[in-house]
Amino acid sequence: MHRIHTRTRTRVSAAAAAALLAPLAACSSSGSPTSPASSGSEVTRGADDRPVTVTVTPTGERAAAGEPVTVTVAHGRLTSVTVVDGEGRELAGKVARDGRSWVSDRKAAPGTTYAVTAATRTAGGSAGRSRASFTTEPAGKVNKVDWRPGAGATVGVAQPVSLVFDHPVRNRAEVERQLRISTSNDTEGSWGWMRDWSGRDRVDWRPKEYWKPGTEVTLKAELNGTDSGADGGWFVRDYTTTFTVGARQVVEVDLDDHQLTLVRDGEAVRRIPVSGGTPGGDKRSWRGTAVLMAKEGTINMNSETVGLGDAYDKMVDWSMRLTWSGMYAHAAPWNARYFGDANRSSGCIGMSDADAAWFYARVRAGDPFEITGKDTKGVVAPGNGFGAWNVPWAEWREMSAVD
Question: Cβ of 83: how many Cβ atoms within 10 Å?
Answer without folding.
Answer: 25
